[in-house]
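User: I need a structural model of PhzF family phenazine biosynthesis protein from Streptomyces musisoli for a docking pre-check later this week. Nothing fancy, just the predicted structure tokens so I can convert them on my end. Input:
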Amino acid sequence: MTDYDVLRVFCGPSGGYGNELGVVREGSVLPERSDRQELAAKLGFSETVFVDDPERGVIDIYTPTRRLPFAGHPCVGTAWLLDVPELVTPAGVVGVRLDGEFSWIEARAEWAPPHTLRRYASAAEVDALEVPPPGERSETGVPSDEVRGLYAWAWEDEAAGRVRARAFPGRAGGTEEDEATGAAALLLTDQLGRALNITQGRGSQILTAPQPHGWVEVGGRVFLER
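Assistant: Understood. Predicted structure tokens for PhzF family phenazine biosynthesis protein:
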């Protein structure tokens, strides 16, 4: 089996929760995309990262079913692991900064995989949602095979920018519910145009902040699981 690290990204204040991420530091051991896709499917994480150049931060991201040009929690986790000033993804160069217990990336909303952002009236309504069947995880009118996740959210405290959210990957997603979704948080921040403090899943925390010229910062805590 190829060696890989397991991180938890966007952990809560006590260090719990977070979304697991697999990182293959020596991407050269699996240079072919088909082999990378096979390993990502076998590992079963929502995303697996292959590092092609640890000094320059060149990375390649896969879900269990497809390759992604960019994804939020893989970039935050890998940035923390490699401790580099930037990451190079197929979508573009992702800025990185480490600030105390938080690791931050800076990216653009158009790089993020599409999500349906659906607002609910209260956090309690979001908490009460059942996981929808794969073909029903996006708005009516979107084809059932569309690779689009549903991001359900509500204000917990609008004045303070506190949001409650849950994410359900689209038909091609590898999990029934995503514990912490940086790309969707990026899209929501771009849409609302303000900094957010998001509690997602069982208790993960994602921080965001809009930046000039269409950029958005996404940050959170990262822990090495194994």
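Before docking, keep this in mind: Helices lie at 33-43, 72-82, 123-127, 182-192.
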